[in-house]
TrEMBL record:
Domain (HTH lysR-type) ranges: 10-38
Signal peptide: none
Protein name (record): LysR family transcriptional regulator
Organism: Pseudomonas amygdali pv. morsprunorum
One Pfam short name: HTH_1
Amino acid sequence: SRGQGQLEHATVSRRIASLEKSLNVKLVDRRKRLYELTDDGRKLAVIGRRIEEQAEAIGRLAVAAQDAPATEVTISAPSSVAIEKLVPQLGAFRAMHPGIVLRLLGDHQYSSLSSCQSDLCIRFSRPVENGIVARRIGTASFSFYCSSFYLEQRLAEHYEFIGYDSEVMTASQNAELKAIVGTRPFVLEAKTVELQIRAAEAGVGIALLPDFAVEQNPRLCRLELSRPLEVGVWLGVHEDLRSVASIQAAMNYVESCYR
């Protein structure tokens, strides 16, 4: 459901045990900390996924049917995009659509559109979730940045790098970093651009950052280690919701932020 977080391991374990007891069927093999589904468990998982998909479809139908003058639209986006691109034009959107309340999620991971965790998503790679309609609304360039005093203290062969957590890197970002960094280890991995910016400002190392978020930052300087990395900016919406008036208004707003 919307806003539901990840469950703790102990909670999942208790729920599995309760389900096994109620069904009188063994669903998982417990081997130390590794759980493996039994044959019956795999069959039940397939059935459960079908039920989940139907429940999600009902939820989307309810959202579409309840589109009213006063409504909420949730947008999932990288926090740097939310801060630098969406918020500056939010006042104009509110003036045009006073009845629509935008809920901005500065995500470092995907929020599911199918299960209505968010209504729209903005990503640096094309969303691949089933049932999602996506279009490219712009581009973002990434370059290497660090503090000026970091450069003064190191030769190029001693450069150290700040990396993205593997969960949030696009394939192109990963390839670019590997090409430059080579076999040198990362001194820090972070889940958000904001953490990387603060680390670079503090002289921790060199980070591959979106130009729109840092090009006016006086505490950072750009390094010409490679040409800027260009990635697409994608806007996604579930096909069941794209005709909802409030969501269409929010989509137009997001696209206007990239014109």
